[in-house]
Amino acid sequence: MEFDEIILQVKGMKKYFPIEKGLLRRQVGQVKAVDDVSFEIKRGEALGLVGESGCGKTTLGRCVLRAIDPTEGEIILRTSDGAMVDITALDKPELRQLRKEMQMVFQDPFSSLSPRMTVLDIIGEPLWAQGIRGKEMEDMVRELADLVGLNIGHLNRYPNAFSGGQRQRIGIARALATRPGLIVADEPVSALDVSIQAQILNLLQDLQEKLSLTYLFIAHDLSVVEHIADRVAVMYVGKIIELADTEELYLNPKHPYTEALLSAVPKPDPRLEERQIILSGEVANPADPPSGCLFHPRCQYAQDRCRQEAPALEEVRPGHYAACHFSKELELTGVAI
To answer: For 48, what's the count of Cα atoms within 13 Å in the CB-facing half-sphere?
Structure first.
């Protein structure tokens, strides 16, 4: 599928959290959770964002929606009327009006739903916030519930009466209530049983086709992302270190960290030899990152240049970007999808 119109453009986004000490809360440092990240997503596309826990991907997703304010950078969203709006420049009333254009599906479907509200109230809350009331709201909620595969006879029940998969369907219906163009899905299946994960992924794909949705799909599991993402961005310690079309990235990784992540993807054929790359050491500390390439202390291919000079994210093949000094020389192992 060809994607033409850009719906989201992120330029030089940074999110630094201060480290404070003492009674006077004096700042003594900062955690670089997201550090100079740029990317774009086209309308109808699903961009997968993957990386280990703590790499900054959830922080990035929340910054995109202005759930938390970025420290620096631009986040430009194309609205339903075609206007390009810098979300970072909006005040609270303006941002509230723009909320209907972009929504989030959360990781934990239980903690993200109020236990004191019925399903009807939960799904209808965004509609209520947009001024839709009464029978019109109820009719729209029933339509949304049917769309995501919920029994419309159960709308007066509370979240504790539903399974994890059904709760996530409630969360998805709530996110779709205002007919947004952009959905940020933050690990939407990681808290679910494997058998249910496939159902939710299939639902998200069906909804994407029916409603022309655009996804920023955040996950730590590359075996999940391959089923839904058109392109994949790999994140490490606050930076995007590789970005490519899904099939290209899986078959021809150009960064050693991506190669290690791919080596952990389960192989469907038991006759294939497992060769998992076990990374040494710990993920770099975003409050005290190493010099040069952030990945060099764990990289089996690291050389002196890697310890001294930080690599830029550069195009190594058409549409394939990597932040590695030796991305054009290394022969890295991918996986077939």
So the answer is: 25
Give me the residue label for tokens 């496939």: 198
Of 195, 182, 229, the closest CA to residue 75 belongs to 182
**What is the rounded distance in angstroms from the CA atom of residue 64 to the CA atom of residue 59?**
9
* pLDDT reported for residue 181: 95
Could you give the 3-state DSSP secondary structure of residue 149? coil
pLDDT at residue 150 in the model? 96
CA distances in angstroms from 70 to 40, 65, 132, listed in the order given? 17, 10, 31
State the Cα–Cα distance between residues 222 and 290, nearest whole angstrom.
Answer: 26
pTM value surpassing 0.85: yes
Which residue type does 74 have?
E
pLDDT of residue 276: 78
Sign, Cα dihedral of 106, 107, 111, 116: positive
Dist. CA 285–CA 294, nearest whole Å: 9
